[in-house]
Design goal:
Layout (H helix, E strand, L loop, with lengths): L1 E2 L12 H5 L4 H16 L6 E5 L4 H18 L4 E6 L7 H12 L9 H12 L4 E6 L5 H4 L2 H4 L5 H4 L6 E7 L19 E4 L5 H12 L4 H14 L6 H22 L4 H19 L6 H9 L5 H8 L7 H4 L5
Parallel strand pairs: 1-6, 2-5, 2-6, 3-4, 4-5
Helix pairs in contact: 2-3, 4-5, 9-10, 9-11, 10-11, 10-12, 11-12, 11-13, 13-14
């Protein structure tokens, strides 16, 4: 896909309030502003791919918040629809969900020609319509080829060039968008890449996530990040995992009564290695991992069952088999 460098227009979105609330604003300010500039253009591109290989969850939030601000600034003139192949998994569900976000009067729709006709009709009161396709990579294996191949050309199919824009959000590059038969789409969207957060931003995010910015917390976050950064790249997953490491670390600090670096670093490194082996591949869930840390004698079957609320007793503890 082509990359896009846009100039700020007179109607560009003010992102200051949105960015002020985000610890990661420094790294992601450029993608947000670029999307805002594309929206502010009088003639918008027909399709845009927000490529977030490391932060798909955060990219969804960035796109949603940016479009909400844009829609609020142009109340009554702009319409935004959100759809995901995971929710709208059939053509009828897809067309109906998109049309009903465009107009409350929309009826159920199951074929492309009817969808395009109704979309043109319902869009007349608006100057611009933005359709967001979240989890866009799942189009390939859920939607029929003729359905997902039409979306980059939606503006052309509706004869609404510059007024209709489809925004894809995906961790995959456009080159990976092939159908199950291996076909690709000749039309490529503009690409906005959401970069990986710098180390300092991630460390700040981890400390804010646990609500502790002490020197001890900073040491813990540094050792944790350096241990898992090559395996876990999604900052949401990093925060989830770090919360578990921090809870286990707190218990160890209280038990040992020590807060020295020499004591903390080896302990955290051991916890991180264990998380990489068991929690990241989901052999054990976070709750089960905490149980195992509290009672190292728990066996894996027991941990898994207790995580599901079964309160099970392991075969080893019962001292025998089923008989």
């Amino acid at each position: 896909p082509m990359s896009c460098n846009c100039r700020s227009g007179p109607h560009a979105i003010d992102h200051s309030s949105l960015l002020h609330t985000m610890a990661t604003a420094r790294a992601w300010q450029a993608p947000i502003e670029m999307l805002g500039q594309l929206l502010a253009e009088q003639v918008s591109p027909p399709a845009v791919l927000v490529h977030a290989p490391n932060s798909p969850r955060s990219a969804k939030r960035l796109v949603r918040d940016t479009l909400a601000a844009y829609e609020a600034q142009h109340h009554g003139d702009v319409r935004v629809s959100h759809v995901s192949p995971l929710v709208a998994c059939t053509p009828r569900l897809l067309y109906t969900q998109v049309l009903r976000q465009l107009s409350e009067e929309a009826d159920s729709c199951g074929d492309p020609s009817t969808f395009l006709r109704h979309a043109r009709e319902y869009m007349r009161p608006y100057t611009k319509w933005v359709v967001v396709v979240n989890d866009a990579e799942r189009m390939r294996d859920i939607w029929p080829e003729h359905v997902w191949e039409m979306w980059p050309l939606l503006a052309e199919s509706m004869a609404c060039h510059g007024r209709v824009m489809v925004v894809y959000v995906s961790p995959l590059a456009w080159s990976a968008f092939r159908s199950t038969s291996g076909r690709t789409i000749s039309t490529s969207p503009l690409c906005i890449r959401v970069p990986r957060l710098p180390r300092e931003d991630v460390l700040q995010l981890l400390m804010e996530h646990v609500g502790n910015d002490s020197s001890t917390s900073r040491i813990a976050s540094q050792v944790f990040y350096d241990a898992v950064k090559d395996t876990v790249r999604d900052e949401f997953e990093l925060c989830v995992l770090y919360t578990r490491v921090w809870q286990a670390l707190q218990a160890a600090i209280e038990e040992r009564g020590s807060k020295t670096t020499a004591t903390l670093v080896p302990y955290i490194s051991e916890q991180c290695r264990d998380i990489l082996v068991r929690v990241v591949p989901r052999h054990v869930g976070p709750t089960a991992w905490l149980l195992a840390g509290a009672d190292p004698h728990l066996t894996r079957p027991t941990i898994l069952l207790e995580e599901r609320g079964g309160g099970a007793v392991s075969l080893d503890r019962r001292g025998g088999g089923r008989g």
